[in-house]
């Protein structure tokens, strides 16, 4: 199984804003005072378009889908939370914590991929768990080490343990389960998505081990990464707050590897960390300040990787 892909799906926002329904447990969101909603959306669109341009310039196959005004979907820019595409031809659809995010799931996006020659053989639909109040938000909640058959998950209100185990059984992954915390107003609170504090590359892993308060769990996670011969690059909680955990390794032209992140993530890294990362992939960064502030998500969240077979 490949760990990285050349193909990604991205959703261009039409009514991007801070989502009041996700702010209850996403502590990275901020209100941008004095900006009209239309200004916020225009800034987000501009950041989005520049980001897509940079990815395409290095040969990443980006399928851009326009969001629709028919639904109130302020977070549609983060598709990796509701869908994942697998080498087996399987597509997984995930149960979402915020009610207004459930409308982001669109069948026409799957149709567009099929029109581009991707093959979908089966849809694994976990969304009925929403009715019972259980959630698992895609590759935000679960980090897949596809090559080594492991899935990492930091449990939170948006990542239910039983659902995660069900996913692992269905897709044949060994579960690695832990809890990750951040300090909010002096209190330790669960981090809402695993991919905020951790990134899995082909030959490396970026992780904020300090977020895993339980020493046994921390040791277990690090041992799993090291057992799979990944170079572990540690980041701090301050760097997590700058979205340095929210990175994704993709492939460009001639299979060249790129590590994609926001400008704020890139700027927060030390010279030594950059040197460590650049041994594995070339860094590609883009300014996502508005998207990060209002959405509380960053570069990784904006890209849904497509591993589907192509005809």
Can you put this structure into words, describing what you see?
This protein is an alpha/beta fold. The protein has a single domain, classed as 5-stranded Propeller (L-arginine/glycine Amidinotransferase, Chain A), CATH 3.75.10. The chain is built from nine helices and 17 strands. Strands 2-1-17 form a three-stranded mixed sheet, with helices on one face. Strands 3-4-5 form a three-stranded mixed sheet, with no helix packed on it. It is globular, with a radius of gyration of 18 Å.
> Any low-confidence stretches, pLDDT <50, length ≥5?
none
Output the structural class.
alpha/beta
Strand content: 15-25%
Number of domains: 1
Principal-axes shape call: globular
Strand order of the largest sheet: 2-1-17
Distance between the termini: 18 Å
- Give the number of DSSP strands: 17
The ordered H/E elements are: EHEEEHEHEEHEEEEEHEHEEHHEHE
Q: Regarding CATH, which class?
A: Alpha Beta
Major sheet summary line:
3 strands, mixed
CATH overall fold name: L-arginine/glycine Amidinotransferase, Chain A
Instruction: Give the helix level as a range of percent.
Output: 25-40%
CATH architecture: 5-stranded Propeller
Tally of helical runs: 9
In CATH, the homologous superfamily goes by the name L-arginine/glycine Amidinotransferase, Chain A
Mean pLDDT: 92
């Amino acid at each position: 199984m490949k760990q990285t892909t050349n193909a990604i799906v991205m959703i261009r926002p039409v009514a991007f804003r801070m989502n009041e329904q996700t702010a209850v447990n996403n502590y990275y969101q901020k209100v941008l005072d004095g900006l009209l909603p239309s200004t916020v959306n225009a800034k987000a669109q501009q950041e989005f378009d520049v980001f897509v341009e940079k990815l395409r310039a290095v040969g990443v196959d980006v399928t851009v889908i326009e969001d629709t005004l028919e639904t109130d979907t302020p977070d549609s820019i983060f598709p990796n939370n509701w869908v994942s595409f697998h080498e087996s031809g399987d597509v997984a659809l995930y149960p979402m914590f915020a009610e207004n995010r459930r409308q982001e799931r669109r069948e026409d996006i799957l149709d567009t991929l099929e029109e581009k020659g991707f093959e979908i053989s089966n849809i694994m639909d976990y969304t009925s768990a929403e009715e019972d109040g259980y959630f698992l938000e895609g590759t935000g909640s679960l980090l897949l080490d596809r090559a080594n058959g492991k899935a990492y998950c930091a449990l939170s209100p948006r990542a239910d343990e039983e659902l995660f185990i069900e996913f692992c059984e269905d897709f044949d992954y060994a579960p690695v389960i832990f809890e990750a915390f951040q300090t909010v107003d002096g209190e330790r609170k669960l981090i809402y998505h695993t991919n905020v504090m951790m990134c899995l590359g082909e030959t490396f892993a970026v992780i904020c081990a300090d977020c895993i308060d339980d020493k046994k769990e921390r040791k277990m996670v690090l041992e799993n990464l090291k057992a799979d011969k990944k170079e572990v690059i540690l980041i701090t909680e301050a760097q997590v707050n700058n979205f340095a955990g929210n990175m994704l390794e993709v492939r460009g032209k001639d299979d060249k590897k790129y590590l994609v992140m926001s400008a704020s993530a890139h700027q927060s890294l030390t010279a030594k960390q950059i040197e460590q990362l650049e041994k594995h992939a070339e860094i590609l960064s883009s300014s996502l300040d508005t998207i990060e502030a209002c959405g509380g998500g960053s570069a990784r969240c904006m890209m849904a990787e497509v591993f589907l077979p192509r005809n």
